[in-house]
Specification:
Strand order of the largest sheet: 1-3-2
Number of helices: 14
Radius of gyration: 56 Å
Strand content: 5-15%
Order of helices and strands: HHEHHEEHHHEEHHHHHHEEHE
Helix content: 55-70%
Mean pLDDT: 79
Length: 516
């Protein structure tokens, strides 16, 4: 009985528990439905708010776009209105211009009609004047007894004579004034150019003296049976004079480059102590190469110092060779540098290109140092070398014309000629053999004496001025100027001289009486 009750109680408890669990589940379900419904309602409310916000933003954007479109439309409208205003203004101006053109056309037609009437009147008056002119000419011919052509010829002849006299007087005045002004200006330019250029005196000659420490070395230089000295002369092309002069050997030759090669080769041989034919040939070849490099370096340095660019390498080499050449004792490279600087200064004074003038001055004597020796004057040879190496025509002409062997076609040519004369004729620039100097003075005097009417001549100022005294009864004042010009031209054509020669013709009248 008790077990059965227990089972019943347990069954009742289990049922009660099941009923409680079911009630709990039902309550939870109701609560979940309530919560879900609240979430859905909340989402709907948020969606509604979001929808309203988006609508507001869309309306604002629509308003902005509408305002911008209205603004652009207004701007375009203002542009259209301004264009229409300009078109109207232009139309008004065109109408005014058209009316003015019409008025001017009417005035021109009126003026043309007036001119036609005046022309008709002028034609009638011209006919009357021609008739009166013929009558007057007939009357004059009748009164003078000459035809119109004869009278015209006489009038023309008289006018010609008057014009010639007036023109000659005018030309003489202009020439006198030009001479005074030109001489003064030329002297100023020349003096200023000379003052601005440093100069050196003549130092070169045709022999080189090689000094040695003792006379014992002379025997070693001569060698057994003279083989060393013969080898040295054959290798250098220079005559080596070994005489009784103490501690000195003379190197003689007209080629200064060869003399320098011989001097340097002797110096190295003596310093080394090994002197024999094979060694001599080796040293001479080495020194010749060194001299060639030094020549090129000298040419480059000279071009750089003078600011001259673009020279052909062969021209640079010729410029370097000038260092070893002299003319009447004046170093050729120094002379060319001096001439180049003078040309640049003078060209600047005259308003010309100083770079071209400096280039022409440096190259004007390259014909004196050619690799070959053609039978041409150095000026023409230099011009051909410049043409060969593509120098400009004005540079070539200045080189070829600086001794008047060709015609001067540019202003550079007389500048180079004058500066060459200044550099060569200045005191101390060149030395001259006494016999040649005396001969040149005598030639000057004899040339002037060859003219009729010349009584005496005097070459003064070292041959830079020639005084010519003429007889007053043989030559008049007008012929003295002509005589001086003729003598000057003949001196230019027939003689060679440094600088310029001034010719002064003197004519004087003397009256002699004796009191007894």
């Amino acid at each position: 009985m008790q077990l059965f009750d227990i089972i019943i109680y347990l069954s009742i408890a289990v049922v009660a528990c099941a009923i409680g669990v079911g009630v709990t589940v039902i309550v939870q379900k109701k609560m979940a439905r309530t919560r879900a419904k609240g979430i859905v309602e909340e989402a709907e409310r948020e969606a509604e708010v979001l929808k309203k916000n988006k609508l507001l933003e869309a309306r604002e954007e629509e308003l902005k776009i509408t305002a911008e479109a209205e603004k652009q439309a207004n701007h375009r409208m203002s542009k259209v209105q301004s264009a229409e205003a300009r078109i109207k203004q232009r139309e008004i101006q065109l109408n005014q211009q058209q009316s003015e053109n019409q008025r001017a056309r009417n005035e021109n037609e009126t003026t043309r009609a007036n001119l036609d009437a005046q022309q008709a009147v002028m034609e009638s008056r011209k006919v009357e004047l021609d008739k009166m002119h013929r009558q007057a000419r007939e009357t004059l011919e009748h009164l003078s007894g000459l035809s119109s052509e004869e009278a015209k010829e006489k009038l023309v002849e008289s006018l010609k004579d008057e014009a010639k006299t007036a023109a000659q007087s005018y030309i003489n005045d202009i020439m006198d004034e030009a001479k005074m002004t030109a001489n003064k200006e030329a002297k100023r330019i020349v003096v200023q150019s000379i003052q601005r250029v440093a100069t050196e005196t003549a130092i070169e000659n045709s022999v080189t003296v090689f000094h040695i420490d003792s006379d014992e070395i002379k025997g070693r230089i001569i060698g057994r049976e003279g083989r060393n000295i013969r080898a040295l002369e054959a290798a250098t092309g220079i005559e080596i004079i070994v005489d009784d002069t103490p501690e000195a050997i003379v190197l003689s030759g007209f080629d200064p480059v060869r003399r320098e090669i011989a001097r340097l080769a002797l110096h190295q041989l003596v310093a080394d102590g090994r002197i024999h034919p094979a060694r001599i040939e080796e040293v001479v070849a080495k020194v010749r190469k060194q001299i060639e490099e030094e020549i090129i370096e000298t040419g480059k340095r000279t071009a750089i110092d003078l600011g001259i660019h673009g020279l052909h390498p062969d021209l640079i080499r010729l410029v370097g060779k000038m260092k070893y050449r002299s003319s009447y004792g004046q170093n050729l490279l120094q002379h060319s540098r001096e001439t180049a600087n003078l040309c640049a200064i003078m060209a600047s004074e005259l308003g010309l290109n100083p770079k071209k003038a400096r280039r022409a001055g440096l190259l004007h004597d390259i014909g004196k140092v050619p690799d070959e020796e053609p039978e041409l004057p150095h000026a023409l040879l230099g011009m051909k070398l410049a043409e060969k190496y593509k120098e400009k025509p004005e540079i070539c002409n200045a080189i070829g014309a600086h001794h008047d062997e060709i015609e001067q076609t540019t202003l550079l040519a007389p500048i180079v000629q004058v500066c060459d004369a200044i550099s060569g004729a200045r005191p101390g620039a060149r030395r001259e053999i006494v016999e040649a100097y005396i001969k040149r003075l005598n030639d000057l005097e004899q040339l002037a004496l060859s003219y009729p009417g010349v009584i005496k001549t005097y070459a003064i100022q070292a041959g830079r001025e020639l005084r010519v005294i003429v007889g007053a009864d043989k030559i008049d004042d007008a012929e003295t100027e002509k005589l001086s010009s003729e003598i000057a031209k003949r001196i230019q054509d027939e003689m060679t001289y440094p600088g310029q020669v001034k010719i002064t013709v003197i004519r004087e009248t003397r009256s002699v009486s004796f009191a007894k």
